[in-house]
Amino acid sequence: MDLCHVPATREKGWYLALMAPNVKGPNYAWLDPSRLYCHPQGLQDCLADLLQPFQGDPIDMVAGIDAMGFILGAAAAAVLRKGFLAIRKAGHLCVQTLTQPYTDYSGREKVMEVRTDAITPGLRILLVDQWIETGGTMRAAIQLVEQLGGVVAGVATICIEDSEGGRWIRERYKCSHCVPPGLQPRFDRHQ
């Protein structure tokens, strides 16, 4: 799809066609949404769809998860006129942090960290990431926010796959994603 083309009819999720399949092998995600971020209308419509369920909800801050969640998270924070908090892979912050181990979508053991001075008890955080495949990364971010006394106001991501971890998150938190119900089975099977 042309990065300047905007379809005459823009149904929810039209911009998903901008994403590119993995051509590098099993150590990478099966689909790359970064091309979607290059398309001005695609990015705007993606953000509108992600944030629509949270209209009127009390949100104090948006937190994006390292690294691709920084893009959507910072954009969402700008739209909502809220501050942005980066939840990082461990070892990147030079201030006091809280850490949380997790297993990512590829089965690799990692550690995530967040600065301890950004979240105060009761602060309502919208967590944003690019994708939830197994749920391990988002679950670690949720644990960090809650350990610091913050409240997860919601979870927003391009896709939440129907995995055990994805279901765990959906059952416990208000969630928003961009995949229309009719396409969800294809995303769950990585087609």
Question: Which key phrases capture this entry?
Answer:
single chain; 191 residues; Rossmann fold; two-stranded antiparallel ribbon; 6 helices; 29% helix; 27% strand; membrane; purine salvage; PRTase_dom; transmembrane; EC 2.4.2.7
Describe the protein.
This protein is an alpha/beta fold and 191 residues long. The chain has a domain at 57-179: Rossmann fold (3-Layer(aba) Sandwich). Helix content is 29%, strand content 27%. The protein has six helices and nine strands. The chain has helices at residues 34-38, 40-51, 69-80, 136-147, 164-172, 184-188; strands at 20-21, 31-32, 61-65, 83-89, 97-103, 109-115, 124-132, 151-160, 175-176. The protein has a seven-stranded mixed β-sheet with strand order 5-6-4-3-7-8-9, with helices on both faces. Strands 1-2 form a two-stranded antiparallel sheet.
Topology of this structure?
Elements: E1 20-21, E2 31-32, H1 34-38, H2 40-51, E3 61-65, H3 69-80, E4 83-89, E5 97-103, E6 109-115, E7 124-132, H4 136-147, E8 151-160, H5 164-172, E9 175-176, H6 184-188
Parallel strand pairs: 3-4, 3-7, 7-8, 8-9
Antiparallel strand pairs: 1-2, 4-6, 5-6
Overall, the morphology is globular
Helix content: 25-40%
CATH class wording of the domain at 57-179: Alpha Beta
What is the number of helical segments per DSSP (H or I, 4+ residues)? 6
Uncertain stretches: none
Q: What is the total tally of β strands?
A: 9
Structural class: alpha/beta
Determine Rg (CA atoms, Å).
16 Å
Q: What's the SSE pattern?
A: EEHHEHEEEEHEHEH
Q: Give the amount of beta strand, in percent.
A: 25-35%
Distance between the termini: 18 Å
CATH architecture of the domain at 57-179: 3-Layer(aba) Sandwich
